[in-house]
Sequence to fold (753 residues):
Amino acid sequence: MRLLSLEVADFRAFHGVQRVEFAAGDDKRVTVFHGENGAGKTNLLNAVHWCMTGQFTPRFQEKRLLVNKGAFRAGRRECYVELLFQDEMDSGGLQYRVRRSATNESQTGFEVFQIDRGNSRPIPNGESLLRMLLPPGLISWFFFDAEAIGSLELSGSPEFKRDLRKTLGFDLVDTLLLDLEAVQSKRRREVASQTNDKELTALQNEMDRIDFVLPGQQESAAALQSQLKQIESSYEEVRAKLGELPQAEPIERQRRETERQMLRLEQERKELDVKVAQLIGQAAPALLLQPLTAALEGRLEQEEVRGKLPAPYSDQLVRDIESSQVCICGRPVTKGSAEAHKIHELLRFASTGALNQRLSDVRYLIRDIERQSASFPVDIARTRNRIVEVDQELGRLEQEFKDLTKQLNDIKGFGGEIQRLESERERLSDERRNITMQAGAMMQQIEQNVRKHKELKARFEAAERKLVVSKKLKLELDKVTRLMEYIRRSLIDQERQALTILAFELNAVLKRYLTKHYSAIINPATYAVQLVDQEGKTVGHSTGEGQVLKFAFIATVVALAARKTQQKIQWMSEPTIAPLVLDAPFSALDPEYQGSVARNLATQTTQLVLMISSAAWGEKVAAALEPVVGKRYLIVSYESGAQGDKPIKRLRLNGDDYQLNYYGAERTESVFVEVK
Amino acid sequence: MFNENNRKPTSFEDLFVELSKEVDAEKTAAMPKEDQVLSEIARQMLRLERDMTMPGSATSQSARVERLAKFIEEEKF
Fold:
């Protein structure tokens, strides 16, 4: 799909009816909105987002104040957003108009029309059509709030993995597997009822109970994760505001550094706990076996001294004597004689290659057990000492954090703004802790239920094997099980293949645009994306290159979502072609990379809508985008108040100067002005 | 691999699609016999699931389960 135009009426900062058109050509595919902070770039992104989905981006605040304040004062109680878009030509090139309206209290209307030769025909199930064109799981990638790019997690959280799986197109096969599990349960219930076996019925009932509660628990966990994401975003916003206040800035910077150290140490503390458990786990068998191995080694040595282990002669010597029929002392050894029999008996104790190898293995094992037993006390003491050091350091940093917080609260002036932000930060911090605990507890319950379901299933299968079930029913159950096993097995291969393609594309972008020789690797289990240098060392996501990685990742995911069927991955669903709408990109980027990231975004997408501040529209960005910009608007902000000491913001475009804000206006509002 | 300008497939791309189909056919032929059968059934089931979950004509999970169970019952493997 390609966006053609947007009309907003009394929506947030936009007073009255305003209309913009988007560049939708193959060559001129970029639309740029230039606006300063607070002009309404996030409002514009959310107008598109809300119109298509009925939802807002996580950073969008005061969702209950949708109607423009000036319009509200003038008695107007409703706002609307209307989007005109066109399906891709390959899919028929049909045009659609979506209109969503709301008051500050609730949504009041939602309509989707198909436009045929100028005539509009309402579509009864419009939400479904929009979901098909732009699946809900993909929206956060296509309509991206780039101001929040710092908090974009590439670290492989379950939520990130879930979203990326949807984007890669594995959601359909995931649903199929869930449905097949239900088919399997249905067949098992039939087995239980046919055999009338109490144990089977009880096991199936228990599995049904878990099947009933698990989706709800998973939904709650996802909702908690989403809530957590929103809280984290708000928390970061409050911290950023604190950092902007001149007197608070140095203390806030120091507090962030302290917090960073605390996080690092908390992570190390967790790793040390795991290490202690591992050390105990590894050394426990060795410690238990050590008294036995000491006795065993004593016995081996004793036998060695007696010349019995290994025997002083080899099996080959015995066979040579038997074949030559002459003893080493020179006496004849006649076949069948008592001597020949005695010599043959020697084979029982002869030293053979296999026996020597086994003895050598036993000795190696004994050495290993001794080594582990000896190193365990040293290793565990060293680890525990480090735990004490980390705990002490954490205690010191916690105190430092408290002191810095107190210093911030003690700063006078700014109309109590610092204290207000601090109190908000603390509230969000408490809320974050609370939600994290709830999410952790929920995840634990889910894990327990999944584990229990697995155990019950295994017990059911074991019990069912003993019963006489009709051949047909057994066959049906077996067919579902084999199918599921096959799909799961090949899904692993296909996921790996998709991630390889994603990593390949991502690295091609990084290679083109990064000045350093860094590459990205994707963990197939967690989907975590990591930037590594030439020596394989991890490069942090907060570095300039880490930020480029995030932009490159978004563009690559969007491109891959559009082209996934071309990659011949069997389980993937249909491709999704949609515009990439980015709010305020590049401000988080190192200036060195701004031009190349802009070029990459324009190259990788079918249509690009950028909302950008004058500060982020540098020479390199302009040089990269100017050739493909098809439409351009200024979001000019008008303030009803006096200018005072506030600045006038200007933007220079292709040799012309434009003013982006005015004071002393009739009302506070933002206005789209097209730049031809 | 990607067409940077998003142009419609060129004749080269058509050729690649053809080649890729052949590679797929070879891959399938190289699979064990049972996997070949399961692969084909899984492919058909995925199509069925797609039709049943298509926005606008989505069916309930219980209806999907009944339909899938019937489909598996009808297939001999």
